[in-house]
Structures
1.
Amino acid sequence: MFDLKEYISEKKAKVDEFIKSYFNPSIIPSILHESVLYSLTAGGKRLRPILCIASYEACGGLQDITPYASAIEFIHTYSLIHDDLPAMDNDDLRRGKPTNHKVFGEGIAILAGDGLLTEAFRILSNTSYANVDPSNLIKVIQELSSSTGVYGMVGGQALDLISEGKEPDREIVEFIHLNKTAKLISASVKSGAILANADSEQIKKIEKYGLSIGLAFQIVDDILDIEGTTEKLGKPKGSDEKKGKMTYPKVFGIEASKKKAKELIDIALRAIENFDQKAEPLREIAKYIIKRSS
Amino acid sequence: MFDLKEYISEKKAKVDEFIKSYFNPSIIPSILHESVLYSLTAGGKRLRPILCIASYEACGGLQDITPYASAIEFIHTYSLIHDDLPAMDNDDLRRGKPTNHKVFGEGIAILAGDGLLTEAFRILSNTSYANVDPSNLIKVIQELSSSTGVYGMVGGQALDLISEGKEPDREIVEFIHLNKTAKLISASVKSGAILANADSEQIKKIEKYGLSIGLAFQIVDDILDIEGTTEKLGKPKGSDEKKGKMTYPKVFGIEASKKKAKELIDIALRAIENFDQKAEPLREIAKYIIKRSS
């Protein structure tokens, strides 16, 4: 029997270990070093790197690609630090702890985000972490940068920012969810598939899986902001509503949102139904995402 | 006779053309698109991409690598947008125009910087721009990310930020200048050499050239802030002094700074003295950097 909890805890331990070993504090200004480590070790679930590794293994990969998977956590963490800034979402708490700029100041928080984003690409262009084809690493960098730049996450975040307080709009919320959240999650699994030398047919399926769970993940997040508890969220509930955020429940209502999330998880599971038992972690993670909302 | 002005204007035109053609406004939120283009076309001299191309040609490269060279301008521009933010240097003017956040607001300015940094790596991982070996592109990405992350530019910027108002300190100013300015300039020429398949001996010389002119460039910048005119600088002179910045003249005095800049240019010229006439642009650019201060 496959044990998701054990699987996640094992992969998470490796990601945590890589993150802790990555920085050389003797050649980084100490406040910057503290700032990047603070956010990298603030209790993240490591969902994206674990998805990357699970996808790599589902596609037959046999090496330890923890460093490359961890680079995705660097990108995710940078995005959280910048999202929390006063000029953006202006959040004081993240996972129950003060946000980076609350502890280190805005200037250092901006630099910590910039540094993490840059270090992600430094890790991904280091060919010594595993025996992988440089042209696969180039493809991974292309995939991750395309999903997180102005044509991806940054574009989604910009529309999110300027849509605060606007009337519910289906096209806008779909653009935001796709770009701000789903593309990086999809890129995480696609990167794993690319590193495993998956063929284009497999990569297409993995991409469909990734976009579907990515959209479901964001819809569930929107639902939890309404129905969750402050304790579980690590920040006050109802903050989307308070900020006038364009959320899925705001546009479609809460019941339709739950239904949509469930449908998306079904689509994700169908996309990888022909994969063998090595895809069990991917399947269980998809089911876990929907369970969070119930 | 080699004409530097003509050389620069020809290369600059190509970089400008690439930048203008790069973005697809139909799939980027319009305010983000305006914001990135605003700063990318705000009158930059394109020094870093031109250095990259000049180094590529000096090492025997024959293709048009404008896109890869332009990616370095994306990185440079992101760093300027973030440096100008209120939480950082809090500058209202850059090259005589209002800074990005003054026009588009802080949130969009942060995202524009994030987007430009990410798009730089998207360009560098696109193998269709020229016929280059993917493993050379990986090396270029490794070089540029190492020079601009927490072990490079971001680290230098962090120390610059926390050293404001502190007593003059030789080690600190040298760390800041090396990391904040010289490493990216050095990485620009190294990237050109790597793309041209230069051997390790050539790359070492190019790196020495790059670090030397990079340090000289920053020292000249410090001097101009004292001796230049507001018109020439595009911002009020004396702003380093006003902010209590750790500058070279503050630590060593203005005459010693001028002498040091000249020495560094001599070191740069000696480093590439065995290169043939294809290195003339590199030599003339080095001389041009020192001329700015006199």
Note: The domain at 4-291 of chain B is CATH 1.10.600.10 (Farnesyl Diphosphate Synthase).
2.
Amino acid sequence: MTDTAIATTTAPAELDAAAAAARRAFAVTLASTAAERASWLRAAADALDAARDELVALADEETHLGAPRLTGEVARTTAQLRLFADAVLEGSYLEATIDHPDPAAIPPRPDLRRMLRPLGPVGVFGASNFPFAFSVAGGDTASALAAGCPVIVKGHPAHARLSRRTAEIVAAALVAAGAPEGVFGHVEGHETGIALVQHPEIRAVGFTGSLHGGRALFDLAQQRPDPIPFYGELSAVNPVLITAAALEARADELAAGLAGSFTLGAGQFCTNPGVVFVPAGSGFAEQVGAAVAATSAGPVPMLTDGIAAAFADGIARLAGHADVEVIAGDPAQQPGSGAPVVLRTTTAAVLADPGTLFHECFGPSTLVVEYADVADALAAIRAVGGSLTATVHAQPGEDVAPIVEVLAEVAGRVLFAGWPTGVAVSWAQQHGGPWPSTTTIHTSVGVTAMRRFLRPIAFQDAPDAALPPELRDENVLGIPRRVNGVLVLPGQPEPVA
Amino acid sequence: MTDTAIATTTAPAELDAAAAAARRAFAVTLASTAAERASWLRAAADALDAARDELVALADEETHLGAPRLTGEVARTTAQLRLFADAVLEGSYLEATIDHPDPAAIPPRPDLRRMLRPLGPVGVFGASNFPFAFSVAGGDTASALAAGCPVIVKGHPAHARLSRRTAEIVAAALVAAGAPEGVFGHVEGHETGIALVQHPEIRAVGFTGSLHGGRALFDLAQQRPDPIPFYGELSAVNPVLITAAALEARADELAAGLAGSFTLGAGQFCTNPGVVFVPAGSGFAEQVGAAVAATSAGPVPMLTDGIAAAFADGIARLAGHADVEVIAGDPAQQPGSGAPVVLRTTTAAVLADPGTLFHECFGPSTLVVEYADVADALAAIRAVGGSLTATVHAQPGEDVAPIVEVLAEVAGRVLFAGWPTGVAVSWAQQHGGPWPSTTTIHTSVGVTAMRRFLRPIAFQDAPDAALPPELRDENVLGIPRRVNGVLVLPGQPEPVA
């Protein structure tokens, strides 16, 4: 079913060579202009768009996600590369800040100028479930390159051939656009991934994957002699709360929406709505089951045999729980595939055993949790732990403030309509949340993802000519800057010394 | 000599009570307005200024740093609290970002609104060497409170009575200004510090101290079931490079400047210039020795007996090295005190044994390293590892670009004049650098220190009334916001949907 057999392992000497090339490339990317980096990112996007049909066909062979979804994912991936190009040119991300000297201050204040600077070569782990958008040329790679950091991707074995081919295209496009050799590397193999996180030349890591694997790599990154940031997006159950009024007003629409969301892509999304809280006795779980039956064609091949086996195990564990009913679907899953399952329990049951009932079940299942009153549901949502998203479905005019307070506490994105699958790439997007959904206080999607690969640097009493162009007296690059505490837009006069 | 004998250990139940109070307070600080938090910070500053004479006397008894230095440090500390009040009101730190929906996009883009949100209760470790500015009400505390996070300080035993008294004053002032009970707590004891880092209610830690102690606490923070950010400022040797031209033009001034900087406060600064690169055969080390002799009154009491003993050990190790000459001062230090020592070696020696010769020696010593050419010096500076600062002294017209390139690589702040001791508190300040100088890519000084205690949150398709005021359609708070990718200042029209 899966293509892991064709995955290879990069020899340690090859990893060293890629890391050394990335370090050499960093000297160039560090000194590159915003215009240069923007052109590199756009060249990579153009090359991927040009190779779209070839890549989608390869991806479908390896992932079974289907051409329409994969075609859309390529478009999302290239739009993301172009958005980072725009953001690099806009320049706010540099946080350019100038404080003129103040000889009257006690002690006298020197001239201080601060901006962000790229960290160095970055390791990126491709994800199984987004062969384009969270893989070779996905968000981690795009944001690191935008920041000025060379990237070494560790390809995911679930789409080894696609990773290799995408890497060839991206590397060639970057270098053809003028980026230095070594700015982009690609390696393979489990042991290689471990060596990548521990490699002395690697200054940060981006990872999207399981809690188990991510935690192990996070620990390695922290245990280095020189710990490095490990940006992991690990696990989420994405609670949804439906109020009684919403359910009364539009149960059919909600059931259909949930059915569509949790079965999308065989449920293999980190934003899959895994637990849905509804008023007790509403029959909503049965409606969801009926909606699934009306639209689903049965078992769908999953990304890997391992993911399918883990899903089957998770469903068996839930279905075998004394307080859980199977409402729709067969908990006995077929090897390699995932078939939708709807389960039901109560807030009392999840509060008694959150470890079992809130364990992320990566695949097409959802657990409908019936609540007696909203306070019970909120207590149970607090027990879920950190999630990427949390959703409330209410009616206009309902006081949702107490609900939003709890959802904002446990999640990184709070939705008031729709379903959490689907992560728009835009300036205001944020993809991360309290542990275990992510390992840090940063986002892996949206323009601010660049901040992960930058560190501040200040120059004190520097001659103008010794400063980076971003911090010279004259704002030659036309970027937003903060001068003597005042934020000034390009074209507006800045305070003078 | 020191007052560690009067330090106590907080009982575990008291720590739990402080943490529970901080958690309750967080519900209030999270919902507080910028104006409220600014008034709390200013009230704390006013109360410390009012108690200045009492606090300075207490601090001098415990730290021996002298009334002038300590009086200045109080002023710096209260100015810092007021700067954060200004920054909270200005509002840029929230990164408020609004993307209006785009139904024409494929897939349709929802309405997305993003800002930063406080993490929760924060643990802060007071430093030995800054009893005000990096302790109870120092930068970590000020930035956490500004962000909306309650704080529990673990007082440093080197100034236990001062910590306790400062904490009383700060806690009373905060609550009198309307902050919730529990917004500020104070605990004591080594084991209590460990328990603080591991406490389930604590969401981040700020620490200033030794590499050894900081690494141990960093490891504990990462090994939690739910890892939390540990912002440690640990260790730095702060290299200085003097060009031949600069030395020729102003050797006396440079020798006097260095002598003043490395002996300031008995050399107990994290920004102490520990290694100074000068052209070989220049006799600069002897000049520094003479400058010290001309100004120093001999041994000075150090902060603690432990610090004095570690300094004596470090000096003995350096002085005993085959390639190191003692130029001035007696390497046999008196117990409890520190007397200035000037040592000399070569770039060849430090490159052969960087582990010994670049080990931070916390106290009044500096190692003059003679270089044959600048390239040798730069190679040696690369071997120093991460530092808080790096300094170049050159003459106008010299091409310093190759030097700045290396200094910017190893340090968080690059100086072109003056000496690295002294950290101005301003918008553009940055205090941090590559490992081991700090544990993360954030700063502990300057306005952006707040970012450490905030995480992003996004709201999708939220009704206007359900949004925080910062993100509503009308910019009622008058803060800078980015709308549809365009940064807009208060009072300017924002793009409409």
Note: Chain B has 15 helices and 19 strands.
